Each structure stands twice: as structure tokens, then as C-alpha cells.
Amino acid sequence: MKARFSPLQLLDFKLLQSHYEFIVPKEDEVDLQDLFQSYLVEIDFSIGRNEEQGEIQVFTKLEVNRDKDANLPGYKMMVEGGGTFRIQNADKLEEGLKVNLTQFSTLNMMINNLRNILYQLTNLGPMGGYLLPPIDITKLLMDKAEEQKGSH
To answer: Mind telling me which SUPFAM superfamilies this protein's record contains (predicted)?
Structure first.
């Protein structure tokens, strides 16, 4: 089947920061799936617009197992990236679709790019590749909106 391209274009993606640490487990036998599922994942992001250029900038930071109270073995990681997007023919799209592309789709693409980087960081590690579980983007956007409401 022939693919139809989205009006959303990823113009540029850059890895801005990364941190990787391995903490040796005290036990010989570790259920990796259970361990990886127990990792706390923190995500922060900001979405900005450059109206002159018609571009959307998204900065996203992912932290995995960096909770100071948990001290779980295995991987402790942080990756931060920036992406630049553009919506082709934005003036011809309905407002709801533009909002969806600007917020939901851009953030989803950023998280997926960072997910791939996390996997690459860990793939040669002692516990093999870590795959970030699926993320509820809608909940992230709602939490961010609440956070911004509270800071005003």
C-alpha cells in the first residue's frame, strides 16, 4: 500500500545531552522485564513556535531510573533532544488538525527519537537493550497544561 505523507515535517533533530550509568545488581538472577517495568520514567518538554519561519521547536527530556529514592540496579539514563518541525500548507488545514500535529504528533516523534537513543545506549550494555514503554502522550499534554496553569 502506498504511504501518504503527513503535512508535518521533521526538519531537524539534535541530541542535546545524554547521561548513562550502570549500577551492578546485587543478585545474580534479575528478572529484566520486571526490573525495567519498575523504572520511574520522567518526561519534561516545551513546545515553542517561530511564527516568522513557520516552525515549531520541541525540546524533550527523558529520565529513566533517576529517582534518588529508588536506587534500582541496572541503567540510569537521561537524554534530551531538540526538534524543529514545520507544517506544510498549515493555512489550508482545519484548526483541530493543526493543534494535533503541533502538540501530539511533534511530542510523539520526539519521544520516539529519544526512545531509539535509549535503546542504542543500552544495547551493548550488560543487561541488553532497554525499550522505553509506550507513553500516554495525551496525559503528558494534559499534565503540562495543568502545570502551566498552576504557575500563572
So the answer is: SecB-like
